Amino acid sequence: MDNKMINEVRSSNKFRLVSAVGNLIILVWITIAGGIMLVLTDSTQGWLGIVTGAVLIALPFTPIFQQYLEKPMPEPIFQILTLVGNLLMITLFAWLTSVFLRDPFVMYNRSNKLSLVVWSVATLLSIAAFVANIVVYSLDRKANKRQLN
Amino acid sequence: MLPHLKITIILRRSLLVMVVFIITGCEVAFTPSITPIVWFTVAPQQFDQMPAKQVPQPSPIPLASTPTPGPVPFLGVDDLNCAFPQGGDEHYGYCRIPESMQYYVWGECQTSCPDGPYPGIELLVLSETETLRAFISVIDSRDDKTDKRKESFAIGGFFGSLGVAGGVPGVLGACLKSGSLTGGWGCLVVILAVGADAFVTYWSFDQGAQANKDLTKPWGLEESAQDLFDLLRSSNETLPPNE
After folding, report:
1. What is the pLDDT of residues B148-192, one digit of tens each?
2. Interface residues from chain A to B (CB-CB < 8 Å)
3. In what order do the strands lie in the sheet with B93-96?
4. I want to staple B86 with a disulfide (CB 3.0 to 4.6 A). Which of A144, B48, B95, B179 is the partner?
5. Min CA distance, B137 vs chain A (Å)?
6. B75 and chain A in contact, CB less than 8 A
7. What is the pairing mode between strands B102-108 and B93-96?
8. Prediction pTM value
């Protein structure tokens, strides 16, 4: 089997798409929900987050995103580093959530309550993205093995 | 007697005899071929003597109980007629009463709460004293640190996730070709961008963590606000409301 065919087989994997969409959803949540949280608590920086979130929502419909999906990536380094990145995100958001959960005064004002919601959902989204990436990675491996055989 | 009248009388008598014979003859000759059914009848009921509870009545329509007004949540400054300076949140805070040198000061009731419009919250009207100035200072610092924590974590969370989401494909795409390190300006720029992102993330989290520590540590701003409010309440600085 020549290199061209191997590349064709590998380019059919869905891992790239799923991991990119997962990261995009997390970023959109942080920018939009985080932005709304800041605006609701009188922080003007929130508008910057909301605008960034709107740009991120439009990103999958641009040629840049398509080019990214078609660009060859070294395997399996890309998949491994993406999964490590997922774990980093989970750790980061879980730590932020735990900061607010451990604060006995977290329910004292709306700002703290909104922060707790934003980071709790971000943690859940990052866990969901990690699980989706693991599932798609294993499915891709099986599909590639079947096609190579 | 005329002959036709005689005939008429004879015919009438004959007809009468025939009718009597038919009626009596049928009744005598009839014998029932089957045993007649005996119908049992219920004894007459005295409806006017039935107990009232057995009288069928329409079932009552279930009605939702009228909701009683629940406790009114205290919204801090938004619930009061306040002038500047003001600060705090729904649990601890202060604001100046317009056209006066007195302040509204509120905080949580520790043991028993006085009868007021806001359950769990005690509202005081105080003149400016040293303790009140200390309380105002703590509330202002507490507001600053709460905002700092919220904004720093939001910035750190965004840049952290952006670095992870964009850093992995960015570095791999710019620095690796066919499994080997290529280097070059493109790779350097991407690495610098990821490094800057990591620095901003770390710096933001450090700022947020410091603010969080100032708020929640023992004798920190949260506990100080509680202690100072208790001091204000227990002292004799309370004056009757001027409204």
Report:
1. 888 888 888 888 888 888 888 788 777 877 667 777 888 888 889
2. 20, 23-24, 26-27, 30-31, 34, 37-38, 41, 43, 45, 49, 52, 68, 71, 73-74, 77-78, 81-82, 85-86, 88-89, 92-93, 96, 99, 102-105, 108-112, 115, 118-119, 122, 126
3. B83-88, B93-96, B102-108, B121-127
4. B95
5. 18
6. no
7. antiparallel
8. 0.67
Contacts of A110 in chain B (CB under 8 A): 89-90
**A60 contact partners, CB below 8 Å, separation of at least 6:** A21, A24
Is residue B142's pLDDT more than 80? yes
Whether ipTM > 0.95 holds is: no
Q: How far is A34 from chain B (nearest CA, A)?
A: 6
Put simply, whether B222 touches A (Cβ < 8 Å) is: yes
For the CA atoms of A93, A99, A104, A106, the dihedral, rounded to the nearest 10 degrees, stands at -50
Question: CB–CB of B108/B89 below 8 Å?
Answer: no
Q: What one-letter code names the amino acid at A144?
A: N
